[in-house]
Amino acid sequence: MNSEKEIANSKILSNSIVLKVLGKNVSFSICSIALRKQWNRFGNFHMTSLGLNWILCSFKTSEAMEEVLSGGPWYIGDHIVGLDKWSPSFSPSSLRVLSAPVWVRLPFLMLNCWDEVNIARITSRIGTPMFLDGNSLNWGKKEYACICVRVNLEYKLPSGVWVDGLGGRFFQKVEYEKLSSFYFHCARIGHLEANCPECVFKYAIHNVPVNSIHQNNPPHNTQENYGP
């Protein structure tokens, strides 16, 4: 490869992000219309379809790009948009670089943990805390705390975390808002339920004919002679 050309191309893409709508195949035209409505305040940007439902968004300035990355959560309909800054290691066949800010609820959080420091510490177990819902510290309602957390979409999302508090160790349940493609049997997002790897594997195992198992694994003949 021509390294000089690669470096030049990388500079052109330095203010670009890659994104994907998770859990549903949304057409490029619908994505373009929806995102331009949400991001028009960040100035002009160019969108390119990369295949496999990936989109490249190129901004004029790094400041505009960073505002999109640090903002959100971003949705198209009820489906969250996973995004990250483009890098030379980006591959359309992988979610390795992809992350997304999501609203996380902590239902019935212990009252002695109800402050921005401890809420951030608890949610740091599942991602990077970004900011609290303005009503979370309002003593008028204490059903759940709500905080925006950037999560890595490559890893499984936990349904809760263990916390060591003054009253002892307890399990804090975690709820993710608007993650319609989050399945608790695999705890991953980013694919349709019909394409869930664990569902496909379990279906294949349960539907293997018994006869085919015996055919592929004939009984061992203990009387077989060895040697010349």
TrEMBL record:
Residues of the DUF4283 domain: 13-93
Taxonomic superkingdom: Eukaryota
Location of the Zinc knuckle CX2CX4HX4C domain: 175-197
InterPro entries linked to this entry: At4g02000-like, DUF4283, Zn_knuckle_CX2CX4HX4C
PANTHER family registered for this protein in UniProt: DUF4283 DOMAIN-CONTAINING PROTEIN (PTHR31286:SF99), GLYCINE-RICH CELL WALL STRUCTURAL PROTEIN 1.8-LIKE (PTHR31286)
Official protein name in the record: DUF4283 domain-containing protein
Species this chain originates from: Dendrobium nobile (Orchid)
